[in-house]
Amino acid sequence: MPDRAPQPVDRQLPTDEARDLISLVRDIAQREIAPKAAEEEDAGRFPREVFTLLSESGLLGLPYDSEYGGGEQPYEVYLQVLEELAAVRLTVGLGVSVHTLASYALATYGSKQQQVEHLPAMLGGGLLGAYCLSEPASGSDAASLRTKAVRDGDDWVITGTKAWITHGGIADFYTVMARTGEGGPRGISAFLVPADAAGLSAAAPEKKMGMKGSPTAQVHFDGVRVGDERRIGEEGQGFAIALSALDSGRLGIAACAIGVAQAALDEAVTYATERRQFGKPIADFQGLRFMLADMATQIEAGRALYLAAARLRDAGRPFAKQAAMAKLHCTDAAMKVTTDAVQVLGGYGYTADFPAERYMREAKVLQIVEGTNQIQRMVIARHLAGPEGR
Questions:
Q1: This prediction's pTM
Q2: Which pLDDT value is given to residue 387?
Q3: Catalytic positions, please?
Q4: Long-range contacts: 349-352, Cβ < 8 Å, 24+?
């Protein structure tokens, strides 16, 4: 039988530097991440040493300025790095995306002094970040958050609970949205809070159906005191910062989704070409051939969609609608592709001996995080028809 092992994705990259970067990522992924991915996910183990390696390799600050230790890569390239990492282990790909999201506020809205003081450690100093917007009673309705930051001289005292925080309890810094003024979106400000601040603690991680190696936990702020020099942007600007960060973060989720879907397709193709029934490979049966073709088409369409949005962002053009479309399509496609991969493998697909069932469990969360897909449809519709209830 001919060798039909999965081939690396043939990527359109803008520079030789980007091609070298993808080669480096693939080498790290296959050498350091892939061999232990299934075992560590099953055990619920977070691979902190992998993130240390990624930081040392310059992969935790790719879209940010080289002046502060970033890679100064366009989003078009950064997102393809995420896809490569997520295809091997979503805990790592999504973790890099969340760290990038947590660094966004300071990198984009921080003062020069704040950036000089904090960004080098955040981007290349081995630190890991978390993004704190959602709360137990405010998920999709993030503007109704209740965590408060009260001014006390030159300090702010933060009190409240954040929920569904990726890296909660293991992060080194938290980008926190807290209410400093009136109700609604205009009374929210952003803060950079170190993990060792007195009064900051994390609950036990949530028990999840997938991504067990990535801790998701509530984070409690019990009178956490931070200086005003850790407020990012102007008072009341926090919600605008949060939404701006999420536009970019949704592209990260889209890229991760395509990575998981690609891994599932590769598994399905390998199995279908090796598994024989009725005297021939099951890939020779038209029903399965058409299924594989549909899976591949959904992946290619998703990749093109997230890259088109990334190129708009890189050109400095509006991309919020396209980011929502990419997040919606790519994560829905990942759910469909991974479910079909389980079907291609039949009974084996339902066992933990093959990775298809893990991909399917992981794909589900991508339809929920950083704005559910119902919220993405609302965002897209607002761009098309204007706000509701005008």
A1: 0.96
A2: 87
A3: 370
A4: 352/42
